[in-house]
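Predict the holo structure. Ligand: glutathione.
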Amino acid sequence: MLLSILVRSVFMAGSMLAGALLAAGAGHAQGSGSATLDAIRARGQLVCGVAGNVPGFALPDSQGVMRGLDADSCRNIAAAILGDANKVKFVPLTTTNRFTALQSGEVDLLVRDTTWTLGREANLGLLFAGVNYYDGTAFLVKKATGVKSVKELDGATICVQPGTSTELAIDDYFRVNGLKFTPILIQDLSEIQGAFLSGRCDAYSTDGSQLATFRATQPSKNDLVLLPETISKEPLGYVVRKGDDKFFDLVRWTYFATLIAEENGITSKNIDSFAATKVPELRRLLGLEGDMGKALGVDNKFAYNVVKQVGNFGETWDRNITVIGVPRGINALWNKGGLQYAPPMR
Ligand SMILES: N[C@@H](CCC(=O)N[C@@H](CS)C(=O)NCC(=O)O)C(=O)O
């Protein structure tokens, strides 16, 4: 056990060093002060790690264009840095290889329905720069089992993907409640869904958003029941490597800019009607005064480009999440009873 932890941490330190060198290689002394920003500018493209197979988050449409909340979060960052939301290369990652891909520099940014936890920040050398979806672990069962609550799953087999915080959340909840379960660990998404449908496990557990979508798209949806409990907090969001504070700032404030735009009713459609606004914060947001972009190492029009090309947070939510039938819930803005809150842009 001890040996495996040691081997793992040596491996991790090694791959992080390689990632840092890789990223630094593209930047030079006269760069922006951010190796990641310099590398993105030099190649003219943001390389963004996504799931690539999760409806609502990242899934190619019939034209092969990556769609979803995570895909649009990547586009936000490309628009902020390069002025063009389309300059993104999407790299599909699994739940198990996503962190090494970010650590090693294979991707600049990870937005892959990934939960913010202490371990992922403190042990993996990563930072969460924004939460684009406050989610939670839930359970799906077959109606025929008669199970109506997670507490009735004592002794059950539960299908869960390895390397996820879902696994850890179930462990915690079952321990607290004196329940036992057997995890059936399956990496591949269609395989795990097939395993659940064919009865290899009594329940299927992951982020509630995914279970709701999965259920809604099944011909047998009326035979499937989403249990009422949400047993954990799963804040999903934008992840960057530690050690590049400038890039972290940029990602975080780009996400905040999408919230500030929504809060002030600025959308992709009406943004140009604010060109003569006298509201100080909006003038700063739109790059009319204040050098906010400059402070972040990008153009002062960075937030304008993001909102004009991708939309404010609410537009992105509606386009990707409302359409799959999931309500905004706690992801509403703070002044509408939700958790989405941006500090002042000044
Ligand atoms: N948010 C959790 C769970 C992530 C997770 O399980 N994602 C699943 C369902 S949303 C997924 O991406 N499945 C697609 C795949 O792995 O191919 C975490 O960060 O560990």
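Residues 137-232 form a domain with the D-Maltodextrin-Binding Protein; domain 2 fold (CATH 3.40.190.10). The pocket of glutathione is lined by residues 51, 53-54, 94-95, 113-115, 161, 164-166, 189, 206-207, 210, 234, 236 (CB under 6 Å).
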